[in-house]
Structures are given as structure tokens and as C-alpha cells.
């Protein structure tokens, strides 16, 4: 890269990390973003590294005259200036692809429609408990480009990878590639379900016979995606018969091999809300087992793991009403799993900016266990049309109103569950801001009722 002209598209955390990495490697970097300014001291820091900033819009010439274009996950690959670069013969890659070319350690990549963050974080914890040098990041935490400087041959890089990141990979090569599950998502970005599936399946593309593909045997779509992988297979699942891999037996997560079972983690050690999160723990345990982590170390890591913020997070109890924040449930399948985590008394807050999928999937689980749905955001009408004849649907003009209405509907005993099934961008910057606001409104309600 020394002396090469590189354009980085998108000045969010991944783009900034890529620009910093490229500048450190001697490239002549232009960071291009539609925003008029950068928050904090980012602009000053980047300029000090010699990065040129192109703010307020993308110039086509900045892209077509480059030796390389690196795009952040939030920048669609078919954006006009990116498409122009491709037509001009300029290579276009993603930030994860860029960083992976310079990593010295091995990569453990995790993808799926739901559960990526939980599995990635828990896997990192398990490996750290066993004494490995570990970095955790990618789609959560630190961008992969920010991990290059500290990468050594002994480092294990546990990377959450989204479809947006994977679709712009070329040589990305995980030692262990994990596919948790698959259901339609991000159809506002991908042209169709097949394109979304193709992007996900790229996680297996460059694996060889000495690598591992960790596959959810209970999900036929995942099994099909991994069918052409050259890597060795390790399956996990609760319902499929597992010969080589991880399953549940007699209250334990066990590792099976050659017809024998080894107890890894007791189910009683799991502190997470929702039976579907057992799948994430099984996947993380499979990674640990492949890396040589002992059952005792795995169990200690799982016992101390209470989950991630905004992922089935117990926020508070107000009387006999629980408030649970699953703001990361940004697609229909994730919301379904959230709802199915409770037996009855659910009031689900659903809505936001719809990303595609079939909201009617929620009808059966809601009819079986919900008191009502509170519809919010741009998708309020869609939510009502899809669910109103299966469960009572109320509309709320704000998250504050939704929390209050949800509480009144859930009384005297129940669960107010933020499971939006939608993106947050109609009302909030991201799912994290939505989750934090939910928690603030719950606390405000709790104080008012004291």
C-alpha cells in the first residue's frame, strides 16, 4: 500500500479505522463521507495522519482515480460512485477484507441472522479464560482494522461478521467459520433473499481442509450453505442427531465424537434469558472445544456471562411487571425468538423501519403468549395489518408512550418486551440508542410509580 492512492468510503468507526490503518502503512488516503463534519476529534486526528477528508458528498473522480476503494459496511456496494469505480477497473473491498490481509493471528468468524454478538462475546470470554491472546470485534466492539497493530501469530481474532461485511470479502479466510442460523433480513439493502444468503455463505468460501465450519444442524438453510465448504465440519443443535459436534444431553451441553459424549457446560450455568440462547452457548462451546479449552474453563466463562446490553437484557421490575430490552432484535425471526422466550403475559413493542420479511410469522407465538402488541415507528400500520386479528394492537407515537402503554397492558403481572423486528433508523441513530432510550423510559416510569 505504500504510496498507493486509496479512497475509503464511509466515516463511521470501521471507515475511520481503515483510514488510520492505511495511513500507517504509507498509503495516500482520502476518507469520503456524505456528512458535513465528523464528531469529536476524529477530523483532527485523521488529518494529523495525513488523511484527506472529503465531506458533504462523494466525488466520482475520488473513486475512479484511486488504486483501491475500501467501503465501510454501511456503504452499499452498488452506490453510484462505488459502481463507477468498479467500471473503471478499481478494486473494491470491504474493511474486514482489508484488515484480514494484515492479521498475523487466526480468525474465528461468526455470522448468522440472530445471535452473532452474544456468540462472539461469549466465545472471546471462553478463549480468554483458557489463557489465549484474544481480540473481539468486527461488527461489535473494535473494528478489525484497529486490531492489526497488536496481532501476533498466537492471537485469536474472534470477529462478528455481518452480510454487509462478508459481501465485500475476497481472500477473507477464517480458521473457524460459524453459521448460527438463517432467515430473511436486510431486504431493504440486499436485492433479495438469495443475495443475502450468498453474502452470508462467503464466510466459508476460502476455507481449506485444515479449517473448521461450525454449522447449526437444526437449520436446513445453514446446512445447505455449508454443503460446498472444504473445511472439516462440526455441527451443533438440540433436535438434529449430532454425531460430530455439540448438543444437549441430560441437562448438559456435550461434545460428541465417535459415538461418545463429553460433558462441557451444565445448562444450569447459563444465565441468559431465552431458550434460543442455548444455541449461542453451544456454538461458543464448540469453538472452545476446537481450540482446546477445558470443560471447567468453559463452565466458568459461561457462569460469569450475563449477556450483552440490548440482547434479552432484563432492565427492571416494576411491581410484578418485567421490562426486557431486546433492541437488537431488528428482524422478524429475532423478534419471534424473543417472544417465544416467555410462557405468557407478554406485551411486545414492535416496529421501526421495516427491513423486509413476513411479520405474520409473529402471529402464532403472540396469540399463544401475548396480552397485546404496542406498534411504534414507520411500520405501525404494517404491524397492525399483520397482527391485529391475532392479538390486540395499540399504537404509540413515541417510545415513552409505548413504555407507559405497555406497562398498563401488562399489569398486574407480565412482561413488556422491546422486540422491534425492525431497524431503528426512523426514530433513533441505531439499535443501541433505541435500547438506551427504552431503559431510560422504564426508569422514569419506575421513579414515577415509587
Account of the protein in words:
By secondary structure, this protein is of the alpha/beta class. It folds into three domains: 5-90, NAD(P)-binding Rossmann-like Domain (Rossmann fold, 3-Layer(aba) Sandwich), CATH 3.40.50; 97-303, Mur-like, catalytic domain (UDP-N-acetylmuramoyl-L-alanine:D-glutamate ligase, 3-Layer(aba) Sandwich), CATH 3.40.1190; 313-449, Mur ligase, C-terminal domain (Protein-Tyrosine Phosphatase, Chain A, Alpha-Beta Complex). Helices cover 33% and strands 24% of the residues. It is built from 16 helices and 20 strands. The protein has helices spanning 13-24, 42-48, 60-64, 80-87, 95-100, 116-129, 163-166, 193-201, 220-225, 277-291, 295-303, 332-339, 363-369, 380-387, 399-410, 431-449; strands at residues 5-9, 28-33, 52-55, 68-71, 92-94, 106-111, 133-138, 155-160, 176-179, 212-216, 232-236, 245-249, 252-257, 260-266, 313-318, 320-325, 346-351, 370-376, 393-395, 413-418. The strands form three sheets. It has a nine-stranded mixed sheet. The radius of gyration is 22 Å and the shape is globular. The N and C termini lie far apart (61 Å).
